[in-house]
Amino acid sequence: MTHTSPTDTTPAAARPHTHTTAPEAAAALQPSAASQPAAPPPNTSQPSTSQPGADRAGLSHETGASASGSRRVRARAVARAVAVRLLGSLVVLWGAATAAFLAQVAQPGDRATTILNLRSGQFQERTAEETAPVAAEYGFDQPVLAQYVDYLGGLLRGDLGTSYQQHRPVWDVIAEQLAPTAVLSLSAIAVAWILMIVWTTLTAGRAPWLRGIGSSLEIAAASLPHYWLGVILMLSLAMQLDWFPVVGGGAVGLVLPVLTLAIPLAGFLGQAARTDFERALAQPFVLSARIRGLSDTGVRLRHALKHSLRSPLQLSGWALGATVSGAVVVESVFSRSGIGRVLVSAIESQDLPVVTGIVILIAVIYVLAGLLVDALTLTLDPRRNA
């Protein structure tokens, strides 16, 4: 039986027979290009899922490039800060040297006459013939500007001048007494740090009344003048209680001078550390440590203390210079050998080269200590490696 389409009403015999080739039949079975739906354009905004390794490599490369760029930016910022700090240090040293030179030039009277009187021990007027050899020896007969240039050139070579009284290089005079002052200053800084850490750990973040006592004592300690505190310690602990020798005594005799310098310094350092210590106690990592069962003392020593030492560390550069200058007073009170006694003797005898040499030395110590503290701060800053 032959089936025909319902729509085909023409008899088969009446339809004309056509011969169709195979290619034509295949072409007739395929839809025309006009009737086909247009293929969607390739999506170039989406990453291809066929190569995940290449995508991850590209993302890693971009992340590495971004981190490298951030490090370069931080390195430039650090280099700029170091350059500014070095320039400021050079300006400070130049200012100290200039002030020292002007102090010598502005000395009342004739400097050559002063030198002759110090050497002979007789204070009298001198004639021009007597002062001429001394003026030529020290360059006093040159213009002030030429003297200034020679003075700066000598400082660059490490020459602090010649002592009027002892007729020796100033550096030799200072170097003989530098070791006792260095021991006193460094010991005072170490004791001040110990006092600050103990006192801050015991009183910071406690009850309001205890915090108030701790803060008040820090303010009071920082306000104590070295001369007054040294006299009080000598009268009470040395003369009345006889716990320490008044003068000398080796290592035991160093206790009172060290405490005289350390107590005010501990007050300054404690004020700087207290705020950061109490702020650290309120941080989430402290609460986490307490939840893990760490004791209050452990939390304070292992976590809060570590986050509160940045400010005292920054003050330590100033502290080193302050203790060296404070040693001048303390060595005079306790009759200890050191730069302080040399300075007092030079002032009494009007030996200005020694006086200005010590002033320049203290300025150099201030500058070098500040640079060292800045370097340590950059090294210990956790944001540096972030």
UniProtKB/TrEMBL annotation:
Residues 1-37 have a biased composition (Low complexity). The chain crosses the membrane at residues 82-103, 182-205, 217-237, 243-269, 315-334, 354-380. Residues 1-72 are annotated as: Disordered. InterPro entries: BPD_transp_1_N, MetI-like, MetI-like_sf. Keywords: Cell membrane, Membrane, Transmembrane, Transmembrane helix, Transport. Residues 178-377 form the ABC transmembrane type-1 domain. Its main location: membrane. CDD domains: TM_PBP2. It is found in: Cell membrane. GO terms for molecular function: dipeptide transmembrane transporter activity. GO terms for cellular component: plasma membrane. It is a multi-pass membrane protein. Belongs to the binding-protein-dependent transport system permease family. This is Oligopeptide transport system permease protein OppB (TC 3.A.1.5.1). It comes from Brevibacterium yomogidense.
